[in-house]
Design brief:
Elements (H helix, E strand, L loop, with lengths): L2 E5 L5 H11 L11 H10 L8 E5 L2 E11 L2 E9 L8 H15 L4 E7 L3 H10 L2 E12 L10 E3 L1 H11 L10 H5 L6 E5 L2 E5 L6 E9 L8 H12 L4 E9 L3 H6 L3 E2 L4 E7 L1
Parallel strand pairs: 4-5, 10-11
Antiparallel strand pairs: 1-2, 2-3, 3-4, 5-13, 6-11, 6-12, 6-13, 7-8, 8-9, 9-10
Length: 274
């Protein structure tokens, strides 16, 4: 069996979506991409299709890796192997090739997130040299029906990205970083309440994702984050609220105090120095 790679930019976008779906078939959690979703990820997560790769086995597509890049840091945004090629060493070969190419283009580090319960993938990344930064967790909440007066002030998403860069953790997961949040567009929304801030997906949808929660350093420890969560839910009644499993575990207490229930799936945030 001969393994090789081709740049993802060589393929039409619908073909890449198809390769992604085949590569994540029977994944530990259901994954199904469509073209609009892929275009959104491409923009906001800084995917580089010239550096992303399609894995070929004897000339046929066998897997895919999406590489995002910002400065000297790259992120393995997704990596999957098609079912027929799993457990045959192709994943290890592919990972080694991706790391080699990252070094050749001058990257200083690569990061990724991997589902903690996906033990084969965790072992693959550990074997490649990735080290664990922290556990990432998620939550869900069915909001109360009672509405409250509008006590939230809307702010520009680009401004919110700058605030996260200024006040947020310096090693936030890629999807929660200030750079990513600054690239969100409406219908996503950013809100301020005093010294607290939050970013959510479209408030018109039944299911809303919380993408950011921030309190200015001098105001921390006084319950403002929990108060912001309660205000969000009170101002957008009848919604189901989702905190994706990309949030640092150290934020967990805040969501629990606001009545959120922790979900079973968790991830490891990992990094390797190149």
């Amino acid at each position: 069996m001969t393994l090789e790679t081709r740049p993802a930019s060589d393929y039409p976008l619908p073909d890449l979506v198809n390769h992604l779906n085949l590569s994540f078939e029977d994944y530990i959690v259901p994954v199904q991409f469509n073209l609009p979703q892929f275009l959104t990820i491409l923009r906001k997560d800084s995917l580089d299709l010239q550096e992303s790769r399609v894995l070929l086995a004897d000339g046929n597509p066998a897997g895919i890796a999406l590489i995002a890049r910002r400065g000297w840091t790259s992120r393995l945004a997704a990596m999957g192997i098609m079912k027929a090629m799993r457990s045959r060493g192709s994943g290890s070969w592919f990972m080694g090739r991706l790391l080699q190419e990252a070094r050749e283009r001058g990257d200083h580090e690569m990061e990724l997130e991997v589902i903690e319960q996906n033990e084969p993938a965790v072992r693959l990344y550990q074997k490649a040299g990735f080290r664990t930064i922290r556990r990432l967790i998620g939550f869900v909440h069915q909001a109360a029906k009672q509405a409250a007066k509008n006590d939230l002030h809307e702010v520009d998403l680009r401004e919110m990205g700058g605030l996260i860069l200024k006040y947020g953790l310096p090693d936030l997961p890629w999807q929660l970083s200030g750079e990513t949040i600054a690239l969100l567009n409406p219908p996503a929304r950013a809100y301020q309440k005093g010294s607290a801030y939050a970013v959510i997906s479209s408030p018109e949808a039944v299911h809303i994702v919380i993408w950011s929660l921030l309190v200015e350093p001098g105001a921390r420890g006084s319950g403002l984050a929990v108060d912001m969560l309660n205000s969000l839910m009170a101002n957008h009644v009848g919604k189901t609220w989702h905190v994706p499993a990309i949030w640092p575990e150290e934020f967990g207490k805040i969501f629990t105090q606001a009545g959120f229930q922790r979900e079973e799936i968790s991830q490891w945030q990992m990094k390797i120095s190149l």
